[in-house]
Amino acid sequence: MTNIAFLGLGHMGGPMAANLVKAGHRVIGFDPMPAALDAGRAAGIEISPDAVSAVADVDIVITMLPSGAHVIDAYSGVAGDPGLLASAKPGTLFIDSSTIAVDEARKAHDLALESGHRAADAPVSGGVVGAEKGTLAFMVGASDEDFQTIQPILDVMGGRIVHCGGSGLGQAAKVCNNMILGITQIAVAEAFVLGERLGLSHQALFDVASNASGQCWALTTNCPVPGPVATSPANNDYEPGFAGALMSKDLGLAESAIDLTGVDAQLGRHAREIYRAFADGDGARKDFSGIINTIRAQSADA
Ligand code: NAD
């Protein structure tokens, strides 16, 4: 049994922390939202009166927060709050599983080390269903020694754990993967709308492309038209799924990484613009494959 503090008991963090409890770990949790605390208590998480008390006497601290600013503020403290790093015992291992920018992850890592702690970035993919089922994919940036320590803990919450390298490289892997995903989902949607205009049935295009060089996850799992893949969100008016707001956020992080490195990633930047507009419109809560409706609506009359 390991003593674990878990901060951020939202859509993802709540079920992740509950799985740690089920596996026999002692989990002390905190979240400013009363509803998240009630659900956490019901799942057997010991609820702390505040974040800093939660970390005072644990071996591992896991954060699952909305953004990089939340993580850095929680680590360092704001407005008289001493922060998590100053409140934990020396040598505590801090794991941040939030999706944040690579440079923010490296800053959080450095702050933890400067305070005498250990640190890892371990963002996830797999969504709320993966969090509930304990089948998340973790992408980990950590030293070899810290990876050995955290792997058994992540195994409880995940189905696939990949050590991507040192500080920030878990976030780097996540941002690169999601840039591929955003671009390919737009490409598949454009191909279906083009096929419609040319008189090609959805099923015929699917049957050809899914067995040819157009094959990809955005087609064979997240097919943006109803019919060919019964479980894709398109069959249920694009709900639930991976929300357009989250894709827009992740492509914003990709754009920050593109700016940081100077890479000529024109499609990544364009996908960022397309999903920003989608999320600003009515796509924020819809699965990101709903971008096909925007493409259809914006296509000129033939
Ligand atoms: P969420 O908004 O449901 O949960 C975040 C929680 O953090 C909230 O309950 C909030 O009250 C809490 N919080 C904020 N500041 C805090 C603090 N200082 N201390 C403790 N708790 C605090 O968001 P989510 O969907 O659970 O996502 C969490 C992270 O996981 C995000 O970075 C997101 O990008 C990433 N992510 C989400 C999904 C998904 O499908 N929802 C998938 C992969 C990754």
Structure summarized in a few sentences:
The protein contains 14 helices and nine strands. It has helices spanning 13-22, 34-42, 51-54, 68-76, 84-87, 102-114, 127-133, 144-157, 169-198, 202-209, 217-220, 244-261, 266-280, 291-298, and strands at residues 3-7, 26-30, 46-47, 60-63, 93-96, 118-121, 124-125, 136-141, 158-165. The strands form two sheets. It has a six-stranded parallel β-sheet, with helices on both faces. It has a three-stranded mixed β-sheet with strand order 7-8-9.
Number of strands: 9
The value of Rg in angstroms is 21 Å
Question: Which secondary-structure class do the elements indicate?
Answer: alpha/beta
Distance N terminus to C terminus? Answer: 65 Å
- In DSSP terms (H or I, runs of 4 or more residues), the helix count works out at 14
Q: Give the helix proportion (percent range).
A: 40-55%
Instruction: Provide the list of bound ligands, each named once.
Output: nicotinamide-adenine-dinucleotide
Low-confidence stretches: none
Spatial order of strands in the largest sheet: 3-2-1-4-5-6
Measured by DSSP, the beta-strand proportion falls in 5-15%
Round the mean pLDDT to the nearest integer and report it: 97
Describe this entry's structure for a reader.
By secondary structure, the chain is an alpha/beta fold. It has 14 helices and 9 strands. β8, α8 and β9 form a beta-alpha-beta unit. α1 packs parallel to α7 (127-133), α9 (169-198) packs across α12 and α9 packs across α13. The model has no long low-confidence stretch (mean pLDDT 97). The site of nicotinamide-adenine-dinucleotide (NAD) has 26 residues, from α4, β7, α7 and α12.
